[in-house]
Design a protein that fits this description.
Length: 315
């Protein structure tokens, strides 16, 4: 796990110069890239969600694009369109922001359903189809979508089909008091989140990310852990407090995410604790709590923790 550990150490160290605290955010964003998955970031405004993704793109020397979602956003605004060139009387492709490496979709739940659907093919197939012609996206293409958990006016809830495309849902909390104090100190000493060039971040060769992805794939998984992952996912499908359980894709993503956790720990094999650690971020957005349970204050995270406790851990 030489490449993974080298990448993780460098990213954590350099990102800390721009993003104070928020260790889970940094780690899980990195894991999303290692697993070639997409991440849904949920948190109130002003807690460094956008800054974290921009900093990550700078460190890995990956192209970055941002889409600010509004209720009138059209699919062509996302994927691009063919435009008639009057001089040559031919159509030319004007690529949209999805033709990038890291795409930040800000306030994704303000995007109308038709435009949300335009992201499905991009996220699952890493390709777009425009006027019947397929266009491949970069192998580094990763969607980081943000949403505000408080303000629901003028929003369109993401359908289950789209939520299932996200490898992980990252809950971004308020920073700890010492981190917030450190943030003020950094600003007083000249830090400006709009001027990352002033930090002189030390970039990494993208080849290191490619090697790290290959190392994650080599993590060994015993047969008993296949059963453990499947039992966790299947248990959500008949859990009394849930009206919708996790899909088979969730089982695959749970194993893949757990393998990345093992690699970041320097191990070439998976253990049950890796799966337990992956359960919350991977499953919380793939289950639906029954209305009566929701009224009682039961949250998806609580249900997942109960499911993990209920499934026997392999020896």
């Amino acid at each position: 796990m030489e490449a993974v550990l080298q990448l993780a150490q460098h990213v954590r160290q350099e990102m800390s110069r721009a993003v104070v605290g928020q260790q889970d955010l940094k780690t899980q964003c990195l894991i999303a890239l290692l697993c070639q998955g997409h991440a849904l970031l949920e948190g109130v405004p002003g807690i460094a969600k956008t800054l974290a993704v921009k900093t990550l793109s700078r460190l890995l020397r990956l192209e970055f694009q941002r889409v600010q979602c509004t209720s009138d956003l059209m699919p062509a605004d996302i994927i691009g369109t063919n435009v008639l060139n009057l001089a040559s009387s031919t159509f030319q492709l004007h690529p949209g922001p999805v033709f990038t490496h890291l795409l930040l979709v800000d306030e994704v739940n303000r995007m109308p359903p038709r435009t949300q659907a335009a992201l499905l093919e991009c996220m699952q197939e890493r390709q777009v189809t425009i006027d019947g012609t397929r266009h491949d996206l970069s192998p580094f293409f990763t969607v980081f979508a943000t949403q505000n958990p408080i303000d629901f006016e003028g929003t369109y809830p993401l359908p289950e089909a789209q939520l299932d495309r996200f490898l992980v849902k990252i809950r971004v909390p308020y920073p700890e008091i010492q981190d917030e104090i450190q943030l003020l100190s950094n600003v007083q000493n000249g830090f400006d989140s709009h001027d990352l060039d002033a930090l002189n971040l030390s970039p990494i060769d993208p080849e290191l990310l490619r090697r790290s992805r290959q190392e994650v794939k080599t993590v060994t998984v015993q047969e008993s852990l296949f059963t453990y992952v499947v039992q966790l996912v299947r248990r959500t499908r008949d859990w009394p407090a849930l009206s919708l359980g996790a899909s088979p894709r969730a089982a695959v993503n749970l194993m893949v995410f757990a393998k990345a956790i093992a690699a970041l720990d320097g191990r070439e094999y998976l253990i049950p604790d890796d799966v337990k650690q992956a359960a919350l971020p991977v499953l919380r957005h793939r289950i639906v709590v029954r209305p009566e349970a929701d009224l009682e204050g039961i949250t998806p995270d609580q249900v997942i923790q109960d499911v993990v406790r209920a499934v026997q851990v392999p020896k």
